[in-house]
Amino acid sequence: MRKCIDLESQPGFQDIYSPVLAQAIDRGLQGHSGTGVVDWGYLPFEIETGPIEGQPPSTEVDNTVPPVDPAIINPVITGSNVYFDSLINRFITADARAIINRFPMANIEEGGGQYSPLGYKLITSKHRSDSAFVLFHEYGHHLDHVIGNRQDPNGFFKGSVPLMEGIVRDADKNKLIVNNTILWDYIFKHGINFGINSESKNTKGGRVFKLPKGVDRAEIEAKMQEGDYWRAIQHLKLHTKKQMQNANLAKEPVAMRKAKDAYESVLKLYDDSMDRHKAVYKLILEAEKLQKQITQKFPRKGEGLHDFLTAFSDMLDGMTRGEVMSYQNVTGDYILRAGHAAGYYSMRMQKDRETGKALPRANRNAGMADESIRAEIWANMFATWGATDKTFYNWLKNTLPETTIAFEKQMKAAMDMPLVV
Predict the structure, then answer these.
(1) Parallel, antiparallel, or unpaired: how do β-strands 121-124 and 358-359 relate?
(2) Which of 15-29, 63-77, 353-367 has the highest mean pLDDT?
(3) CB crowding 294-315: b at 16 or more within 10 Å, else e
(4) Beta carbons within 8 Å of 153's beta carbon, 6+ residues apart
(5) What gap in Å lies between CA 36 and CA 390, rounded to an integer?
(6) Which of 156, 145, 132, 125 shows the shortest CA–CA distance to 24?
(7) Which residue of 73, 273, 334, 389 has the fewest C-beta atoms within 10 A of its own C-beta?
(8) What is the pLDDT of residue 266?
């Protein structure tokens, strides 16, 4: 069963972290327990920052609902609040509306950013500058479910399954995948033990991260709180270096060679991770430039702001399995502009954003984490693909070609499906 975010938490975009990005967080991971509730949202960073240049903060706007243009192609009438119908008919393409019209409508209500396949319940915001984009993201989750349910009636959110191979290939091409086998292997062979003092960023009260040897990756990640992935890499870098120095002082050839190999392996993981951070930052800077150009085309007031930067940042968070987010939670070097809460894209622990307390993991295996990745990327893809301004989507087709091709194939498949009366 899928767990999710709550734009106050993350993919739905409600509780904005950055005044500009209109992000959201992830608080409904409990839906993963089998209730069927998916709470999608973007993760609001816990730092103070101003709006990104050229991107206005999400604000409340005039609540007048314009009438539907009688000449509009493929008008959508969801049967829910006419305000949401108005957003769909004004700010999304005719092709996207045609897809929506071919399947059962979501039941849309005003609130945060959530979607549940049980009852097709979609909750989203009203009268905000990003209301249209949030709605389209959440509606993407609905289409993921109903399209997938036609292709495979067993389970939830199966429409995004064909995207996973392309996601991995695109991540690899953009240097977003780091081989961290050495981390898990080292802990399995030697265990790990290091302290985290009370001054550590985003950590309340000192604690110790300690595991015995013989634990596998799933067991290790199950004990990792927010930021512990990066802390473990930092610790092993220093620990193996010290072991190498001690072995050199003892001048025992076999021990010297083993210690040197261990240190160099961990150092490679550290260096590869830092190279990935640079690759992610480069992509984010490109996306920021495009977002600024696109935002200038839209009025400063109105619900039609297309928040592509937030969507793309969350896609990168998923493609890096929350590992870049772990780095920035520890260091304060905020590369990603949005993302999901701790543990959403991995087997690591979650975090209650209101209390700061660590929560048990929702993903018990890597496959469950993959579900989160593909489902969020699908929703972000739909919001981007369906937008009336194609500037960002055209860039995305060059940046993530395999993912966009797989998504477009699913959109075509949806249009070719026979209608169910």
Answers:
(1) unpaired
(2) 353-367
(3) bbeebeeeebbbbbbbbbbbbb
(4) none
(5) 33
(6) 125
(7) 73
(8) 98
